Amino acid sequence: MAKIDYYFATLSPFTYLAGTRLEEIAAKHGAEISYKPLDIMTLFSRTGGTPPKDRHPNRQAYRAQDLVRQAKRAGLPFNIKPAFWPTNPAPSSYAVINAAQADGGDMGNLVHAITGACWAGERNIAEDDVIRDCLSKAGFDPDLAEANMLGAAETYARNLEEAIEKGAFGAPFYITDTDQRFWGQDRLGDLDAYLSGDL
Question: N or C: the chain end with fewer CB closer than 10 Å?
Fold first, then answer.
């Protein structure tokens, strides 16, 4: 069985625009996904990236245009200037980490619900009621929003170190157990082709 380490940020618009395509690809190939949310701003600073607000105006303008195009291509509602971005990504990331260790829910739907709450729902994903709602919608116990905070925080920090060690530098980032690396939701087709043996 193929395994995919999925490094992502709950604040990332590109993680949102991935939708649940990773889960569809994994199901197609019988692959296992390990969900690993991380601190994207620290990842940028540690791997030579620049936060969006600090990028040259040309890059910011292109990013804005491209995000809107990618949302239309994916058929997803999208707000280029969400009311609650940036916000603290840790609480929602901790909830994802807790959910990954629990039973009964859908991880792909959880990640999509959280990112969608930010980029399409005008909701603050740092707030407990928003996180609890996303957990419930994905079939998880909403109390996971407040469970095991210390353990989740340790895993969150460990995910960052592991991502850097394995070669990640952005989000979403997909790394197979054969060390094939795919950066961005626009490379999911390549991941699919690789798992099919075509790349």
Answer: N
- Which residue would you say has higher pLDDT here, 1 or 99? 99
At the fourth CATH level, the homologous superfamily of domain 3-195 is Glutaredoxin (3.40.30.10)
What percentage of the chain carries pLDDT values higher than 90? 98
Tell me the domain boundaries of the chain: 3-195
- The predicted pLDDT at position 103 comes to 79
* Three-class secondary structure assignment of the chain: CCEEEEEECCCCHHHHHCCCHHHHHHHHHCCEEEEEECCHHHHHHHHCCCCHHHCCHHHHHHHHHHHHHHHHHHCCCCCCCCCCCCCCCHHHHHHHHHHHCCCCCCHHHHHHHHHHHHHCCCCCCCCHHHHHHHHHHCCCCHHHHCCCHHHHHHHHHHHHHHHHHHCCCCCCEEEECCCCEEECHHHHHHHHHHHCCCC
